[in-house]
Amino acid sequence: MEWVKVRCDIFEHRKIKLIRKGPKGDTLVLLWVMLIAEAGKCSRGGALMISENNPYTTETLSLLLAMPESIIEQGLDLFTRLEMIERDAVIRIRNWRKYQSEDKLEIRREKDRLRQQRHREKEPEVSPSVSRDSHAYPSRDVTPENRTEKNRVEKTTTEGVRLLLSQTPLSNISDQELGGLMQRHGPGRLRQAADVAAETWRRDRGEIRNPGGYLNTLCESLVIPDWYVPPDERQKRAQETRRRQEMQTAGLGGSTEDGRA
Question: In sequence order, which ranges of 66-143 are alpha helices (DSSP H)?
């Protein structure tokens, strides 16, 4: 879904008023609106799901919404008590179909599914060998040159991502998982998501049980935190810090020698 419905009088609703009067009320109301937006992105009837068998967790929400896990947990507990969500193995927004016209979304999904099916049926089968006399030209994607370039890009991206993830729990991700993420999201998106994930862990030291799923979630819904500094800028700052330290050390050394003289 590209948009969700939110009532204009949302802040007059008694549950929202109760939330705002409690601890961290305004933050939890913001969390509620963000949950609705995330459920819209998932397009799964109000369920917060990364994929068919991969539900959102408090860790997932903390990463995507840039909120501490303690706030996420506090909000989910409160929303459950107020019967705004259902929370078992999957977090679900209650009455989603009623307020978000889910029936229309399902009609659009079915149309998309049928369109993709027709597209697949029309795709010609590629023969292992193409006759020299044939007028069919091989695709650029299967030429030896492009295959070599593709392998080079994949290898370079994998090495770069592993460097970004080094000394974090995310470094346990397998090459196969990295390759799948690269095919699904592209090298640039994967590198950026990997760097944000690594810097987030270095900042919060949160537990990461499934590096592949964690990175996939971030690639699908990448939100850049306000505090995030890109690698080039971090390197530049580190060089400036080292330069200042070297100048200070040199200055102190010169003063000592002058004093001895």
Answer: 69-81, 96-100, 102-122
Q: What is the DSSP letter of 230?
A: -
Task: Identify the helix (H) or strand (E) that includes residue 240.
Answer: helix 231-260
The pLDDT value given to residue 48: 93
Q: What percent of the chain has pLDDT over 70?
A: 77
- Which tokens belong to 216? 């996939």
Q: How far is the C-alpha of 182 from the C-alpha of 188, rounded, in Å?
A: 9
Find, among 86, 109, 91, 99, the residue nearest to 4 by Cα.
Answer: 99
* Assigned token pair, 95: 């009455």
The span from the CA of 215 to the CA of 128, in Å, is 35
Instruction: From 74, 38, 36, select the one nearest 55 (Cα to Cα).
Output: 38
Q: What is the pLDDT of residues 168-184, one digit of tens each?
A: 999 899 888 888 888 88
* Alpha carbon distances (Å) from 54 to 57, 98, 170, 192, 213: 9, 25, 18, 22, 8
HEC letters along 34-78 = HHHHHHHHHCCCCECEEECCEECCHHHHHHHHCCCHHHHHHHHHH
What average pLDDT does the structure give for the chain? 81
More confident residue, 125 or 101: 101
The pLDDT score that the predictor gives to residue 26 is 95
* Exposure of 217 in the CB half-sphere (CA atoms within 13 A): 25
Residue 91, SS3 per DSSP: strand
Confirm if 100 and 86 have CB atoms less than 8 A apart.
Answer: no
Whether the model clears a pTM of 0.85, i.e. scores above it, the answer is no
Quick one: residue 95, left, alpha or beta (phi over 0 = left, psi -120 to 50 = alpha)?
Answer: left
Q: Which residues contact 44 (CB under 8 A, 6 or more apart)?
A: none
**pLDDT, mean of residues 155-170:** 86
Residue 30: pLDDT above 50?
A: yes
